[in-house]
Amino acid sequence: MTTNTVADVAVASLHAMGVGTLADFRSLYTDDAINREALAEPPDARGTGPDALFATAAWLRTAFSDLSWEVHEVVQEGDLVVIHSTMSGRQTGPFVSFTPDAKVAVAFPPRGRTFSVTQTHWMRTKGDRVSEHWANRDDLGMSQQLGWNPATPLYLCRMLLASRRERSKAARA
Q1: 55-93, pLDDT tens digit by residue?
Q2: Sign of the CA dihedral 8, 14, 102, 137?
Q3: pTM of whole model > 0.90?
Q4: Which domain of life is it from (predicted)?
Q5: Which residue from 78, 100, 105, 107 has the highest number of Cβ atoms inside 10 Å of its Cβ?
Q6: pLDDT tens profile 149-165
């Protein structure tokens, strides 16, 4: 990935979530990089550094195919980069949310639906790499587009079964 400015690095790190390799993440994130949004993510995404951020990408890619971000605006002030974007994709796998103590909270089984929601990503940089990330997302809009909310009685049953399945997998791991 070719980058020229800190803003380019931040934008590249966002696009890497959809298609980047672990090598890409290692070139884009500092060894102590932190994702402030990882509290509802799997345990391996809660650490620091490129491997933890790549685990976030793997978690998203497990649930969503055709995952991409359209960048609308980028603002840089010193070591802070803000990106206004639209995230889109199609849910083809279960989306699993986790509790603060890293247990499976709920699993949303796939329905094959697409979504497109706006997000604002804030990234702090050190040198020529991203060291910190946090975001504002339209999670309600996404859940409505994917049919999670309001859930039909049948979908609630599917969620219950998917959540049990994911908890069983986590217990065996």
Answers
A1: 999 999 999 999 999 999 999 999 999 999 999 999 999
A2: positive
A3: yes
A4: Bacteria
A5: 107
A6: 999 999 999 999 999 99
39 contacts 48 by C-beta, under 8 angstroms = no
Q: How far is it, in rounded angstroms, from Cα 113 to Cα 141?
A: 13
- End-to-end CA distance of the chain: give it in Å, rounded: 34
Tens digits of per-residue pLDDT, 89-132? 999 999 999 999 999 999 999 999 999 999 999 999 999 999 99
Q: Quote the tokens at residue 43.
A: 């345990």
Question: What's the rounded Cα separation, in Å, for the pair 79 and 71?
Answer: 19
Calculate the dihedral angle through the C-alpha atoms of 143, 93, 42, 130, rounding to the nearest 10 degrees: -80
Q: What is the CATH number of domain 6-172?
A: 3.10.450.50
* DSSP letter for each residue of 130-168: EEEEEEEE-HHHHHHHTT-SSPPHHHHHHHHHHHHHHHH
